[in-house]
Amino acid sequence: MNRCLASLGVAVSFAVIGATAPVRAADEHEVHLAIRNHKFEPETLTVPAGVRIKLMVENQDPTPEEFESADLNREKVVVGKGTIAVYLGPLDAGKYHFFGDFHQETAQGDLIAQ
Known about the structure:
Layout: H1 2-19, E1 28-36, E2 39-41, E3 44-47, E4 52-59, E5 65-69, E6 74-78, E7 83-88, E8 94-100, E9 108-113
Parallel strand pairs: 1-4, 3-9
Antiparallel strand pairs: 1-2, 4-7, 5-6, 5-8, 8-9
């Protein structure tokens, strides 16, 4: 009887681990965005809809910038000469605006999911 309970415990453990496992790399789409001269490059990113997105934001300027988007519900500081990952989605098809909060006059962009 103890063997049965031990086997059941192992099976339940594997089921819980499988249910909470992180998304596999094959299930996400990675895109890159640079900050240079207080502008996003490219200004428009196109990504697939319905897929988890890993957005890598590289700040090539020596000063910090903040990647912010009310549409995407994200706000994250990128230190000067630093890189961050912003995880999004899966996103519905549409246009999502983002901006650099520290240089709003020049750091503007859009992410288009299609």
